[in-house]
Amino acid sequence: MPHRRLSSSDWWEQSRRDLRAAEHLLNEGFSAHAVALAHLAVEKSMKAILRDRSGEAPPVTHNLSELMVRVGGEWPADLARAIDELSRLDITLLYEPDAFFRRRLPDHFENARHAVADARSVVEWIQHQLESS
């Protein structure tokens, strides 16, 4: 599998790119797409730290809660909560975007804005962990 060859820096670069894309899509009104990419940004940042620490390929999973457990350590409560919420928001949102939001269209942006901001907080915290290890 190609992902097994990715280095920690490869995972990290993909995470940063996905986060930037999520922010761009959010600003352009593509809420569900932004949230799906925010989820991927967090997932890939966790895979970067797992690869960095172990030297081995990270697990093939999209489950952020599982990845958080594998990363281990003391997670700030607000970030653990954000990860739990982001765990429900993945690529499947794009199949039926209104199913998650369950609100009128104007509310989509606000929900997505919070999800993308949470993703940025998690990615920045992981960056700090990578830099201090």
Query: Averaging pLDDT over every residue, what do you get?
Result: 89
Task: Count structural domains.
Answer: 1
Instruction: Give the fraction of residues assigned to helices.
Output: over 70%
Question: Any idea what the CATH superfamily is called?
Answer: Nucleotidyltransferases  domain 2
Task: Specify the CATH architecture.
Answer: Up-down Bundle
Order of helices and strands: HHHHHH
Number of helices: 6
Characterize the structure shown.
There is one protein chain. With 133 residues, this protein is an all-alpha fold. It has one domain (2-132): Nucleotidyltransferases  domain 2 (Four Helix Bundle (Hemerythrin (Met), subunit A)), CATH 1.20.120.330. 71% of the residues lie in helices and 0% in strands. It has helices at residues 8-27, 31-54, 64-71, 77-87, 97-101, 105-131. The relative contact order is 0.19. This is HEPN domain-containing protein. InterPro entries: HEPN_dom (IPR007842). Residues 12-129 form the HEPN domain.
